[in-house]
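Why does residue order matter? Because the sequence determines the fold. Keep that principle in mind as you read this record.
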Amino acid sequence: MSRVETRVVLRNKVGLHARPAALFVKTAMKFKSTIKVIKDGMETDAKSLLNVLSINAQQNDEIIIVAEGEDAETAIGELVKLVERNFGEE
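Structure:
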């Protein structure tokens, strides 16, 4: 079982709120791995919309995405791509 961790900066206008957070959670849920998102030391389940919203991640905030499990690398790759593409905004 592998563990992968990466840091990304949210560049989209609203950060991880409403639609972007829902897309993030929907993407995380496609994987078997346990996925966490961390901001300012606050760690939460990336597969729970309320939890993702609770970290209050804004534009230009750095978040850490941690995945642990058999598809961890693929999960991290897809989530990073989602963030880098600004959740389809712009």
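The first helix runs from residue 18 to 28.
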